């Protein structure tokens, strides 16, 4: 090639190329299968409780405790992965989680509400942290940043499908058999998916990069103000999702169409999946923090449509818009988190990100439940959460770029989505 000739354009990026890369399909499929119980277990627990003679209120408490204990323990499991590796954490957690789910219908009736509550909380605590684990594996599995960008968008967008397929599968199993069978299948899927991941060479070989920098202290603490503000902003994203779920139920009751309570979240999740497919097909010119802010603006704009109190069909179409940008927000948040995290603490940082969204979602659900009787207020709550997230992101925007050169390990990558040079 002559000195004046331009470099050849990069080959067209396709998802078949991404999934055809070594271990990608196995890791993604195993993680999604292993995480399917996240969408199944709360519903299965609720159905088991009600068919066992408990009230819906108690079943709801058990379901909420499972999700809450799982979210709260994410950073702990992330810290353990960063110290001992993935296999040593994922596999024991999956075995215990599956055993507890199977034990619930066997032990619950004999120990009363107290034992059932203890089993459910322990089951949530032992949920494998597969999502954070997968994100830490992508740099070693996909050194090409374009492929890694597409894989991150694909697995982020596919998450929403877990909360469509999971509850539907539980409902089908409970209807055809009983909730005990649904809990057993949930346990088997969780253990099977986790086993596929932990027995893969990338997961078995993965070790965190030792923390040698001083930017966050000698111990590599996660005390970056940029990280803290990013996680605070993500609680607003979660708040919007939680409020939307309750708003969809209120819409169903208001219009006398029960299916709306499932169709609206399904449309939102479908938008998230499609948005991830579109976003991952190309490398975007702006750095991740800028993409994060732009996507948050679009995420907020989508929720503003609900303030017009749309009819059911229009509401279903409207939630696709913020759903499409949710994947972009979350994917960019992961990249930004990686750039701000000291080496050797990546899994824990990702787990805090997951916890932030989950905590916001719980808050949005709780507040929206109290305000469900107010149509306009209920419809406006998702936008309130999105606006809070955007305000924090705008205020903290300059802190999302590392202020000084940091040690690079297998987790370090460019915010612009292309390889960094030494």
TrEMBL record:
Protein's UniProt keywords contain NADP: no
Keyword terms of this UniProt record: Membrane, Transmembrane, Transmembrane helix
InterPro entries: MFS (IPR011701), MFS_trans_sf (IPR036259)
Disordered: region residues: 403-422
Biased composition (Basic residues): 407-416
TM helices/strands, residue ranges: 45-68, 89-108, 114-138, 150-174, 180-201, 222-247, 259-280, 292-309, 315-337, 349-369, 375-396
KW Transmembrane (keyword) present: yes
Pfam families membership: MFS_1 (PF07690)
Name under which the protein is recorded: MFS transporter
């Amino acid at each position: 090639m002559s000195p004046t000739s331009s470099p050849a354009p990069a080959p067209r990026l396709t998802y078949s190329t991404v999934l055809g890369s070594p271990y990608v399909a196995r890791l993604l499929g195993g993680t999604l299968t292993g995480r399917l119980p996240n969408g199944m277990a709360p519903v299965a627990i609720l159905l088991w409780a009600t068919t066992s003679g408990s009230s819906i209120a108690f079943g709801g408490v058990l379901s909420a405790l499972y999700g809450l204990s799982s979210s709260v323990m994410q950073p702990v499991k992330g810290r353990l992965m960063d110290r001992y590796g993935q296999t040593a954490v994922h596999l024991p957690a999956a075995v215990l989680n599956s055993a507890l789910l199977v034990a619930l219908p066997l032990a619950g009736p004999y120990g009363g509400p107290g034992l059932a509550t203890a089993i459910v909380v322990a089951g949530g605590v032992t949920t494998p942290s597969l999502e954070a684990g997968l994100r830490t594996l992508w740099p070693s599995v996909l050194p090409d940043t374009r492929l890694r960008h597409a894989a991150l968008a694909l697995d982020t967008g596919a998450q929403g499908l877990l909360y469509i397929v999971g509850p539907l599968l539980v409902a089908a199993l409970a209807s055809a058999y009983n909730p005990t069978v649904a809990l057993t299948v949930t346990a088997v899927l969780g253990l099977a998916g986790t086993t596929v991941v932990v027995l893969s060479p990338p997961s078995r070989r993965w070790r965190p990069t030792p923390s040698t920098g001083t930017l966050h202290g000698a111990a590599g603490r996660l005390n970056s103000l940029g990280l803290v503000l990013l996680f605070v902003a993500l609680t607003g994203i979660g708040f919007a999702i939680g409020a939307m779920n309750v708003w969809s139920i209120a819409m169903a009751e208001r219009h006398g169409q029960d299916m709306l309570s499932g169709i609206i979240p399904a449309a939102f999740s479908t938008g998230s999946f499609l948005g991830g497919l579109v976003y991952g097909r190309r490398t975007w010119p702006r750095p991740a923090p800028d993409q994060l802010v732009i996507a948050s603006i679009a995420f907020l704009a989508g929720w503003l449509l609900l303030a017009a109190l749309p009819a059911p069909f229009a509401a279903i179409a409207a939630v696709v818009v913020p759903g499409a940008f949710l994947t972009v927000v979350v994917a960019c948040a992961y990249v930004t988190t990686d750039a701000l995290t000291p080496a050797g603490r990546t899994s824990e940082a990702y787990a805090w990100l997951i916890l932030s969204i989950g905590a916001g979602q719980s808050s949005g659900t709780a507040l929206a439940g109290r305000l469900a009787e107010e149509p306009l207020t209920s419809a406006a709550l998702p936008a309130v959460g999105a606006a809070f997230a955007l305000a924090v992101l705008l205020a903290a925007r300059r802190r999302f770029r590392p202020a000084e050169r940091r040690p690079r390990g297998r987790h370090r990558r460019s915010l612009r989505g292309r390889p960094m040079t030494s």
